[in-house]
Request: fold
Amino acid sequence: MIHLLPTMPERIREMHAVLRLPEAPDIRPSHHCSKPYDCEFWQRCTSDKPKDWVFYIPRILSASFDRLERSDVVSMRDVPAYFRLTRTQQRVVDAAKSGKVYRSRELTDLLQPLAPPASYLDFETFSPAIPVYVNTRPYQRIPFQWSLHHDDGSGSLIHADFLAKGETDPRRGFSETLLSVCEQFPGAMMVWSHFEEKVIRDMFELFPDLAERFTALLDRVVDLLRIVRSHVAHPDFNGSYSMKSVAPAVAPEVTYGDLDIADGGGASAAFYRIAADPTLSPEARDGLRRSLLKYCQRDTLALARVHQWLSQGVTKISAPFGAEISSNSERDQVKVGSDIMPFDLSTLPVLGTGRSGSNYRRPNRSR
Reply:
């Protein structure tokens, strides 16, 4: 940072000059708007762009985007046939033009081993600049929440989750509860991106006594995003493979518009307030916790619905992923009429003092 100091006076003068302008500067939205950080005015500056704006072509290079815009090509539907794209990019553009869903020939073979029983996992973390807990460092990734949905193959979903209280380091409670629940369910553990795998590896290194159990869990983790990105294109994804784009396109009942917290950044900020804001009232704290639980649960529900949509017409093979893991018969319950079947966690082992400061919620029928 020291090498930047000589340039700061001039940069500050330029910023002040911009602030004195009677209108916002006319700057074309492009990749520079996210360097080094996402611009908070992105939505405002791109509000007139079509949903299939060429900027949303996956991983399009700045030079390619610039060539399209200089040719007045704004919509993916207008991308010339001769324009050079990667295979994945071409699938996305073709889907936008045709309005049809693309599924590769290999998709069925990839999905067969992942047939239910299967689980869907999502984590939330925060990385405070000033450490909140002893033995943590600035900007260290600290997991504080997980959500899991399980599909036993009957069409109903079981849900369990964990949310730390924030008063003490949540990582031990996070790890013990996660392992206890995951070990109750057979089959693959579906995630969306490599993020969850990275967090699991962090906990693997932090808690050597849990390393063997975390290794077994890692062997079951499957990145569904990687499969979808490589083998599926949908016109309503609009070039994006984020869960917020994919889930509503294939499962319209799964939306995020009704949530107070609707993304990972908001979840991190909310938990930071819970953990580090001494002025936070009990009512506000409870409200943030409810919002966090709803958001994380929505993410794993979305993941389950995406997998179900992908698996339509896929024949289950005789030995599903993780079939060697025995099922706990005590969790097989009579359906309760709701689409989400509660999971009785009372049979799980009682955690020791390592769970102090954690809140291990046991889902009930009212949810």
Notes: The chain has two domains: 52-100, 109-355.
